[in-house]
Specification:
The protein has 1 helix and no strands. It has one helix at about 20-45.
Length: about 50
């Protein structure tokens, strides 16, 4: 919009975090958590 100024941090990036970067972090964390749960479940089943 004309005349609208967005706040920027000192390094020239927008002050608010990028939503796609946050979504990437969430999906990576979810994938790692799923892998850890699957590994733990497999180890538990091996002991039975």
């Amino acid at each position: 919009m004309a005349g609208e100024v967005r706040s920027r941090s000192l390094c020239g990036r927008p002050a608010e975090p990028d939503p796609t970067t946050m979504l990437d972090i969430v999906f990576i964390a979810g994938g790692l958590a799923f892998f850890a749960l699957a590994t733990g479940y497999t180890a538990l089943c091996e002991r039975l």
